[in-house]
Amino acid sequence: MAVKDSASAHAKRLRKKDASSSSSIPKLLNNPKGTMALALLFIDSLLVSIIIAYVPYTKIDWDAYMSQVSGFLGGERDYKNLKGDTGPLVYPAGFLYIYSAIQYVTGGLVFPAQILFGILYIVNLGIVLLIYLQTDVLPWWGLSLICLSKRVHSIFVLRLFNDCFAMTLLHAAMASILYQRWHLGLIIFSAAVSIKMNVLLFAPPLFILMLKGMNISGVISALASAALVQIVLGLPFLISYPIEYISQAFNLGRVFIHFWSVNFKFIPEPIFVSKEFAVSLLIAHLVLLAAFAHYKWCKHEGGLFNFLSSRIKSCLSTSSSSWPKTLKKEYIVTTMFTGNFIGIVCARSLHYQFYSWYFYSLPYLLWRTPFPTLLRVFLFVGVELCWNVYPSNFYSSVLLLCLHLIILWGLWSSSSTSENPYATDKSHSRKEK
After folding, report:
1. How far is it, in rounded angstroms, from Cα 396 to Cα 146?
2. Cis bond upstream, residue 391 (ω within 30)
C-alpha cells in the first residue's frame, strides 16, 4: 500500500511539473518582462553581429591561448611548459579542453571564433535574463541595463577571454540551483572553476545556501560530485605532473601588474605589490563575508553560529530532520551575487576582462539596495564609465572604489538582504535532485 501511495504521489508531481513546463511559454509571452527579455535577446543579437562585422578585433590573449592549447594537443602535460606570449598557463584543465575545441572548430582563426563567442554572449544573456525573470526584482525596463555595457560586449566578441565561458557556466549553475537542481548546479559550478578560478568567489555564499537548502547527505554528495569533476578534468596532469599542475592552475598567490589594475591604480606600486596589502585585503574580505553571513544571510536563524549549531544538532539527532527546505529564489540570487561582489570590492587587482565577473549582477544588486531609482541608475552608469577609461588612472580607480563601497553599504543597510530565506518553514519532503 505504501509503495502504491508513493508511486501515486510521484505521478502527481510529474503531472504537475509537465503542466508547469507546458504553461511556461504562454506565461512568458503574457508577461511584459518576458516580452522585454525576448526583445532584448533579438536586439542584442543584431548588435553583436554588427560589432563582429564592423569593429576591429583587439589581439590580447588569443595567440597565447592557441600556443598553450597547441602544446597540450602536442602531448605536453607539464603545466610549466605550457606557455604563450603572455607567459605560462595559469588556468585549470577545463580551459584547455574548451579552447582545444575552439581551435578544432575554428582552425585557430579569429573571425569564426568571434562568431562562436557571439553565440556564447547571447546564450549567457539568455541565462541571465532567465535568472532575473525568476526573481522578479527589476522593473521591466531595468532589464535593458543588462545589455548596455560597451566593455562587456568587447570582452566577449572582441577579446575572446576565457572569463566569458567561466561566467556563462556560473550563471547556468545558478539557474539550475533556482530550479532546485543542486547536484547539477554544483557540477556546472565546478566546471566553471576549471576554466577560471574567479568563480570560487561564489563558493562561500553557495556553501551556506547548500546547508540551508539540502540535508547533510545531499551536501556531501554534491561536494563530492564537484570534486570529482576537478579530478576527472585534471587527471592527465595529476597523473603525470601533479605538483606542477596544482601549483600553476590553482595559484592563489599571483601578483598582478600594477599598470592593468582598474580598481587600485591610485595605490602606489610598491604598496600594491606588497604582501601586507594583499593580507589586508584578504582580512577585509573574510570579515565582510563573516559579517554578511552572520547579520544578513543567517539572520532568520539567529546568526551564523546559531545556524551552524542547529545544522550540527540536526545531524546528530535521531529524529526526523526539517531539511531539506526550499529557498526563495530572490534569496539565492541575492546571497550569491552579494558574496561575489564582496570579493570584487576586496580584489587586489581587477583587470578589464574581470568586469564580466560581476557586471551582470550589478542591476540586481542595485535594486536590492534602498536607494532611489535615479541613484541606482547613476551608480550603474558610473561603474560602467570607470571600466571604459583606458588606461585607468588615479581618479577613475578612486571613483570605482567609492562606487563599489556605496553599493556595498546599500546592500548592508537593506532589509531585503536579511529577509526570511525559506519559501516555507515547514518540513519539505522533496529530495534534492
Report:
1. 22
2. yes
The helix/strand/coil state of 422 is strand
Question: Grid coordinates 546528530 are at which residue?
Answer: 316
How far apart CA 346 and CA 140 sit, in angstroms, is 32
388 CB-near residues (< 8 Å, 6+ apart)? 150, 151
Per-residue model confidence as pLDDT tens digits over 392-426: 999 999 999 999 999 999 999 998 777 789 886 44
* Residues 201, 203, 208, 213, CA torsion sign: positive
User: What is the model's pTM?
Assistant: 0.91
Residue pair 265/392 in contact by the 8 Å Cβ criterion: yes
pLDDT above 90 coverage of the chain, percent: 79
How far apart are the two ends of the chain, measured CA to CA in Å? 25
Q: What is the helix (H) or strand (E) element at residue 88, kind and residue range?
A: strand 87-88
Please, are residues 105 and 116 in contact by the beta-carbon 8 Å criterion?
yes
pLDDT tens per residue, range 221-278? 999 999 999 999 999 999 999 999 999 999 877 778 889 999 999 999 999 999 999 9
- Phi, psi angles (nearest 5°) of residue 422: -100, 135
Closest CA to 169 of 190, 149, 154: 190
- What pLDDT is stored for residue 318 in this prediction? 58
Grid cell, residue 236, equals 592527465
pLDDT at 1: 45
Tally the C-alpha atoms within 13 A of residue 257's C-alpha that lie toward its C-beta: 8
User: Quick one: cell of 398?
Assistant: 578612486
Strand-pair partners of 422: 327
The CA R_g of the chain, rounded to the nearest whole Å, is: 22
